[in-house]
Task: structure prediction
Amino acid sequence: MCAYALLRSEQFTESIQYHQQALDLNLDNAGNWHNLALAQECLGNYEDEIASYDLALTLKPDDPQTLTHLGNVLRHGGRFQEAMAARDRALELKPNYTDALYTKAVIFALQGDTNQALVNLREYVLGRDLHPHS
Result:
């Protein structure tokens, strides 16, 4: 069973092992670093997850999905400025990226800025209607 299939079937420890084996063969695969980070998140290994996203972004710095996922873990850790910077960069690369718009709204709400949260939530809802697959 491949590493990503293990991740999808919620066999997170096994998925981490397979991703690490794949990375032993090729450290330059941003997708494997990204998927390793996803498995690490599921096990609560947040510092390892951040490190894996950072390595993925070193290899592929213009990936809005990885930037958005990094922003999520930073947000969960209360690192709102860093999370917002990751989200802003994702939106520079893909302006209608609804995942980034939604989580940006969440960050504003957590910081108590309900006006900006509502602005971003509105953009998210409009983006979902205009770009259902973004």
